[in-house]
Amino acid sequence: MKIHELFAYLCVENAARAIEFYMNAFGAQEKFRLTEPSGRIGHAELDFGGTTMMLSDEFPEYGVRGPHALGGTAVTIHIHVDNADEVIRRRRGSRR
Length: 96
What we know:
- By secondary structure, this protein is of the alpha+beta class.
- The chain has helices at residues 15-26, 67-70, 84-94, and strands at 8-12, 29-35, 41-47, 52-57.
- Helix content is 28%, strand content 26%.
- The N and C termini lie far apart (47 Å).
- The relative contact order is 0.22.
């Protein structure tokens, strides 16, 4: 068996806000999103310069919950960037 790709897939409390954060802080580009009529994001993909991350809102009715609902998480993401200072500046600018 050959594995061709492996994607991080996050479930978060507010996927739209997370997408905005990743775009502002890291320059990620939104590839697409699937949104319910209620506004909940069922699936979205972000491109981080050739690396894809997927995310969605919580769907507690299916047992899909984010870290806040679970009281923590065993998962962390390490994003290696060329200029950490620039990323911090972008992140601070995205809070306004």
